[in-house]
Amino acid sequence: MRHLLTKKKTPWCLLMALCLALAAGCASTGPPVPPSGFLENYKALKPDPEVKGLYWWAKQGVDWKEYSKLLIDPVQVRVDKSKSKRRLKPGEAKMLAQKLRQAVVKALKGYYPVVNKPGPGVLRLRAALVHIKPVEPAMNVMSSAILMIPLDVGEAAVESQFMDSMSSQVLAEVVAVDEGSHAEVSKVWSRWDQVEDAFQDWAQMLKESLREDK
């Protein structure tokens, strides 16, 4: 089964995620964000050869065609405030976690059944927002006035886990990270536009992968 973030064939199904600077050390092949403790197989995560910022692991021997429905848990927030690059306003992280889940549910509507309880053939998706950095519009106003280019971009990262909804056996895990683009001129004047755009993009890729693997 294809993983849920790319368009290449892989033996499993993965999910979404979001924006963050890709600054992994030369000797490291793991994600450039500290593990939050949400996943079980961090050491097994490998970088995807086609998608920058995507790291995944999948259990061998899973027949993904057995799964025809998706149960999506509420997205958790596991942002380490002590390591955050920019202070968040009260309620912002929770709001973004809700928007991430909403983006996935909306993208799958009419294409792949989303259910509200475990059952045979139901794949369970758990996800946690582990890093978010908003754009600072005032900084971009200043840099644009002086350097003629906005310098500040949004960042985020998501950890995701796919499980058999009946047995709770972990079948696949993914860490997705990315960073907003300075070229997205229309998106650098709002605090969260780049992050929310990433939610939409990855939700669409998830839909495409699930549809092709049915």
Span between termini: 9 Å
| Number of distinct helices | 3
Average pLDDT for all residues: 79
Computed CA radius of gyration, to the nearest angstrom: 17 Å
Low-confidence stretches: 1-28
Helical percentage? 10-25%
List the secondary-structure elements in sequence, H or E.
EEEEHEEHEEH
Largest sheet data: 8 strands, mixed
State the shape: elongated
The total strand number stands at 8
What does this structure look like?
With about 210 residues, the protein is of the alpha/beta class. The protein has a single domain, classed as Double Stranded RNA Binding Domain (2-Layer Sandwich), CATH 3.30.160. It is built from three helices and eight strands. Strands 1, 2, 3, 4, 5, 6, 7 and 8 form an eight-stranded mixed beta sheet that branches. A hairpin with a 6-residue loop joins strand 1 and strand 2. Helix 1 packs parallel to helix 3. The longest helix has 20 residues. It is elongated and about 60 Å long.
List the helices and strands and how they pair.
Layout: E1 46-47, E2 54-58, E3 69-72, E4 76-77, H1 92-108, E5 114-115, E6 122-133, H2 137-147, E7 155-164, E8 170-179, H3 193-212
Parallel strand pairs: 3-5, 3-6, 4-6
Antiparallel strand pairs: 1-2, 2-8, 6-7, 7-8
Helix pairs in contact: 1-3
